[in-house]
Amino acid sequence: ANVIDISARKHMEAMLTEREQTIRVIVDTQTELISRWLPDSTLTFVNQALCRFIGRSEAELLGRRSLALRWIREDELARLHRAIEQGPRHVKPRQRENVVVDASGCSRLIAWTETPEFDADGKLIAFQSTGRDVTEARQAEIALKESEQRFKAIFNSMFQFMSVLSPSGLLLEINDTALAFAGAQREECLGRYFWDTVWWNATRNARADLQASIEQAASGQFIRYAVEVSDRSDNKRLLDFSIKPVCDESGAVVLLIVEGRDITETRQANELAAEQQTRFKALGNNIPGLIFQLCW
Asked: Whole-prediction pTM value?
């Protein structure tokens, strides 16, 4: 009789079993929803995170089709197959999102990444799928977008000239009122140092004064002064101008809010009123009794 030493084969099988168990442990401890399914969407593997998310056991899921579970739609599966028909070399992992009902009956938005697997002959044999619950992230994105839209609507409807700067003085945002005043386009202004923009050509010292004021505001000081700027017709206008620092929780300045109110007419009216008052006072001093007589 022939005696065959199978100890090496047994050792190899033991190593493979141990490796498979290790891989299974690693996959089952992941928070991502991991599955493997055949080209017709039949599930051949699901990790424990996916089972917990769906509220079903591994035995209940294996052998079922992702299509029947509504994890993928017919048109999405068809798109995957159309891409694969171009050949394995042209296929890359594909991302998609769809709604999946979790164990509590709530609809959750899942971002899936599907990676096709091919055999040695280039034939599609399976898909490796990884899903992440992005419900809160998408809701936060929507809320942020809506908040930005509300901010822009309010920001651009203000009669004052408003802008937002970085602490170094870079222009991050500016409202429509300020742009219309100077006849400027938002794209040509954003990202530039504020003192290098079109608003500060009226006087020789305007740019230097603004740069110094921004440096002071960046150190945490509130700055306010009157400044003369040029409008789109090169007319000189007087602004009540202020720079307010915005700080984070640690007290560091993270933004500068700039506001300018056109006070040209107000200043002119005040000067005219002061001039008229001076004239009446002089007239009253030179013509005794005139004011009393006019009152009668």
From this structure: 0.53
3-class DSSP assignment, residue 200: helix
Name the token pair of 256.
């500068």
What does the block give as tokens for 36?
Answer: 């493997």
Q: What is the DSSP letter of 42?
A: B
3-class SS letters over 239-269: EEEEEEEEECCCCCEEEEEEEEEECHHHHHH
Taking the mean position of all CA atoms in its chain, how far away is CA 93? 26
Residue 33, SS3 per DSSP? strand
- The type of residue at 74 is E
User: Tokens standing for 257?
Assistant: 């809010």
Give strand pairing partners of 170: 193
pLDDT digits (tens, 9 = 90+) for 196-243: 998 888 777 889 999 999 999 999 999 999 998 888 888 888 999 999
- Compute the distance between CA of residue 112 and CA of residue 121 in angstroms, rounded to an integer: 27
Tell how many helices (H) and how many strands (E) occur in the chain.
Answer: 11, 10
